[in-house]
Amino acid sequence: MPKKVLVTGGAGFIGSHLTERLLKEGYSVTVIDNFSSGKQENLYRLLKNPRLRIINDDLKKPIRLRKILNDCEIVFHFAANPQVKLGETEPRTHFDENILATFNLLDTVRKEKSVKVIVFASTSTVYGEPKIMPTPEDYGPLIPISTYGASKLGCEALITSYAYTFGSRALIFRLANIVGPKSTHGVIIDFIDKIRNNPKTLEILGDGTQTKSYLYITDCIDAIIYVTRKFLKDKEKVEIYNIGSEDQITVKDIARIVAEEMKTPHVKLNFTGGVDGGRGWKGDVKIMNLSIEKLRRSGWAPKHNSAKAVRLTAKLILKSSN
């Protein structure tokens, strides 16, 4: 990869792990983040690295972006509001933080002309509720059921159109549920917080049968780096890859794992019943399982299954908070 790269959202959960990995491998990394969901402490142990530059700027109204892009050939675009549930009450946030921010980035890239490749963190939610599982990258039509999924699909469309119109290249990753230390939201953290508040009863949104794939963060970063390097050697204008585990786990099983790690295995599970057939909230995809056959054919496979990813995440989050 080019020695100078930009990571948008580099103070976020996935972005900070990616930044750390890029630095370890010798790259000079500029992070741009507005710290709306990213945290400065995610980058604390990297601050002394002379190859790291952190810029507090907002892609919704960027001030320094063009100058930042001046010497970057590749952009890892990971800036976004990642909370799917937020769309039920604040859909405008997904438009502003995801679509508007992406448009501003792309249009600055168009004017600056130094960036050759944009690597984008998309999501499994762009598929909506597919009739084929595991779901391959060429599945269609894509009908997202959340504003988050819709905003990410809109970003994909913008990125690919700019690639074909203005001469850049685009690599899109549709991510499963990524878990691990530094994560700030999601079912594992929700369960930990609830059991701490009430070790006798755990409220679970939905009917507990929600079933999805979970991938540990180190596997996710490994896949991103591996495929990006491969893509840079190829000549394809646009590529899309699913990144996820090869199995699934239910919300009920996640609750049991978290309870075991918190030494409360007998906590009573109280299911709310949920909405629209047992979902946790409107827009919640109840069953998700990405096909990673394309990823496997490229030579990469995950080291952790969903249950191991969940258990390891719970262990490390609990350890860091003690």
Describe the structure in your own words:
By secondary structure, the protein is an alpha/beta fold. The chain has two domains: 4-178 and 215-243, NAD(P)-binding Rossmann-like Domain (Rossmann fold), CATH 3.40.50; 180-213 and 247-288 and 304-321, UDP-galactose 4-epimerase, domain 1 (Alpha-Beta Complex). It is built from nine helices and 13 strands. The strands form four sheets. The protein has a seven-stranded parallel beta sheet with strand order 3-2-1-4-5-6-11, sandwiched between helices. Strands 7-10 form a two-stranded parallel sheet. β1 (4-8), α1 (13-24) and β2 (28-33) form a beta-alpha-beta unit. The longest helix is centred in the N-terminal third of the chain and has 22 residues, at 91-112. The protein is globular, with a radius of gyration of 19 Å.
Can I get a quick summary?
With 322 residues, the protein is an alpha/beta fold.
In helices, the fraction of residues equals 25-40%
Strand order of the largest sheet: 3-2-1-4-5-6-11
Order of helix and strand elements from N to C terminus: EHEEHEHEHEEHEEEHEEHEHH
Strand content: 15-25%
Count of domains: 2
CATH superfamily of the largest domain: NAD(P)-binding Rossmann-like Domain
Oligomer: single chain
What does the radius of gyration come to? 19 Å
Report the CATH topology name of the largest domain. Rossmann fold
Number of strands: 13
Distance between the termini: 39 Å
Low-confidence stretches: none
Structural class of the secondary structure composition? alpha/beta
Q: Assign an overall shape.
A: globular
Mean model confidence by pLDDT: 95
CATH architecture of the largest domain: 3-Layer(aba) Sandwich
Major sheet summary line: 7 strands, parallel
What's the level 1 CATH class of the largest domain? Alpha Beta
Number of helices: 9
